[in-house]
Design brief:
The complex is a heterodimer of chains A (about 180) and B (about 120). Chain A starts with a helix and ends with a helix. Chain A has about 180 residues and is mainly α. Chain A is about 75% helix and about 0% strand. Chain B starts with 7 loop residues before the first helix and ends with a helix. Chain B has four helices and no strands. Chain B is an all-alpha fold. Classes of the chains: A mainly alpha (about 180), B mainly alpha (about 120). At the A-B interface, α2, α3, α5, α6 and α7 of A face α1 and α2 of B.
């Protein structure tokens, strides 16, 4: 479906680009948020990424998936924004431990919006590479090869970061959840 | 209240699946499309102007030597003699000097246009 719209854009039907924008808007915003941790800057980065994708659409080879090609642009634009604005992202670095906290049980008892808020809070507190890989792997269901292409990381490095990210996710989730519960109670 | 509890191994997938974010700016799509349309318009204008520039450069390349030669032959250099300059001694220099100057200007223009054309192809 993407190919059809891309070909239409390349043939001069600019309005077809709107389909691409609405399809990739949310995922690319989530990817950018993993890196820049600020809604305002993420929106700016995603907008710039779409414009850049449009500018370079002629260079897109239909051999690979458009999402991989586009997410690579989103990642680069987000990293550029960080460098440009000199944002110092400090993810919290709790001691990663094997947690026996049953997140499924605890979280599933919460309202949908509350679940979403807590999970995004946790991802926001994680280092950018870890939250980015978690979102690419679990949210968009990219395989490791695609993740490597998007991020420029090696396969082994991606696997290590993903493994570390899973552990850190549960550790931060546990502390965030407990904190939230204390606030509610 | 959600009751869709999953196995521990699937927990993280289930949890991260809930982390999809949406831009808070309501008119996000329109804003992007506005920028894209603006870019497309300026790209078209630049391409059109580039084509015209190449066309005029080719015209000047063809027309200038001819007109220069004709004009040079018809020019009256008597005002130079009135300034006290020995025209006989310098007349041999004027024509080649004009040709060299024209060649330099032409090469500079070709270089500028070539760079601009390449830049447009990359954008």
């Amino acid at each position: 479906m993407d190919d059809k719209y891309i070909r239409q854009v390349l043939e001069g039907d600019i309005e077809s680009f709107r389909h691409i924008v609405s399809k990739y808007r949310d995922m690319s915003f989530s990817i950018s948020m993993s890196i820049v941790k600020s809604e305002l800057i993420a929106e700016e980065a995603v907008q710039d990424a779409f414009v850049k994708a449009f500018q370079n659409l002629e260079q897109f080879r239909f051999k690979s998936s458009f999402s991989t090609w586009f997410y690579k642009i989103v990642v680069n634009e987000s990293l550029r924004k960080i460098r440009k604005k000199k944002i110092d992202i400090v993810g919290i670095d709790p001691e990663i431990e094997n947690s026996n906290f049953n997140s499924g049980d605890a979280i599933s008892n919460l309202h949908e919006e509350a679940q979403k808020e807590i999970i995004n809070q946790v991802l926001n507190l994680m280092p950018e590479s870890e939250s980015l890989l978690l979102r690419l792997f679990y949210l968009d269901e990219n395989d490791i090869a695609a993740i490597c292409e998007i991020t420029g990381l090696s396969q082994s490095n991606s696997k290590v970061i993903l493994h570390r990210a899973r552990k850190r996710f549960y550790t931060i989730l546990e502390s965030t959840f407990k904190h939230e519960m204390r606030t509610i109670l | 209240m959600s009751t869709d509890k999953l196995k521990p191994n699937d927990d993280i997938a289930w949890l991260v699946k809930k982390s999809m974010l949406h831009p808070s700016f309501i008119d996000f799509d329109n804003k992007v499309m506005q920028r894209v349309l603006l870019l497309n318009t300026s790209k078209k204008t630049i391409r059109k102007n580039l084509k015209l520039s190449w066309l005029f450069l080719i015209f000047s390349f063809l027309l200038f030597p001819l007109s220069y030669f004709l004009i040079f032959k018809r020019l009256n250099f008597s005002f130079i003699a009135e300034l006290g300059i020995n025209i006989e001694a310098h007349s041999q220099m004027f024509y080649p000097a004009g040709v060299i100057l024209f060649t330099i200007i032409l090469l500079l223009q070709v270089d500028n246009l070539y760079r601009l054309t390449n830049k447009q192809k990359l954008v």
